Amino acid sequence: MIKLFELIKNAKYRNAFIASLSLTLISIALWILAGRYLQKFPAEPSKDFVLDLLPTVHNPLTIGFYLYGFVLILLFLFFWFLFKEPAKFAQYHYVFGFALLLRVLMFSVTLLEAPAGRPPRLVDGFEFDNDLFPSAHAALPFAAALITTNKNLRYLLFLFSALIAVDILLIKIHYTVDVIAGYFIFYAVYKLVQKYLKI
Questions:
Q1: d(C-alpha 64, C-alpha 190), whole Å
Q2: What integer pLDDT is reported at residue 39 of this predicted model?
Q3: Where does residue 69 rank: exposed (0-12), middle (13-18), buried (19+ CB within 10 A)?
Q4: What is the DSSP letter of 86?
């Protein structure tokens, strides 16, 4: 807490803190608006050989992990970077915000029907059938693992990222390419933020 207050006194840090958090909030708002708007349009399904091989598993454990696990990890990461690694707070939110903006752009131009077997929308108004490419559920904890300097947390985030990726595919929330592309896109955004924003 003391470290955060010390950093906030620095104008450069304060500006990056506000800008990165604002970017994340604007990106979330654009994702919701685009997701709701695109629900009106028909979309085509895609063939996915991996999903065809996997069983469809809809039970309280898989659905709960997908919904609540992700919300809890988002809250945890927000407070972790705010209080434990405040020097990394802006970097985390720049990666989150820019990657989410890219995601909105990409799913807006690659309108796909949800995979066969996907459950009905679980959180209406905040979950959409056509916002598939790329997936952020597994990619965001992966990017956070790259950002944190805490070795134990890094391994836990990599593990969480792998588990939620498998969970997503078993529930049939995303196509396999959505999940794989998410890792590459979030990694690329992480490297660009690290190189050009010098945080």
A1: 28
A2: 82
A3: middle
A4: G
Across-strand partners of 127? Answer: 124
Residue ranges per structural domain of the chain? 2-196
> Residue 13: pLDDT above 90?
no
Q: How far apart are the first and last CA of the chain?
A: 20
For 199, the token pair is 């945080």
For 157-177, write each residue's pLDDT tens digit.
999 999 999 999 999 989 999
The DSSP output letter for 124 is: B
| 32 CA to centre of own chain | 14
Token pair belonging to 23: 């970017």
Which CA distances in Å does 62 have to 133, 168, 187?
A: 21, 8, 26
The percent helix, strand, coil of the chain (3-state, each to 5) is 70, 0, 30
Kind and range of the H or E element at 105? helix 89-109
Identify whether the C-beta of residue 179 lies closer than 8 Å to the C-beta of residue 165: yes
DSSP state of 109: H
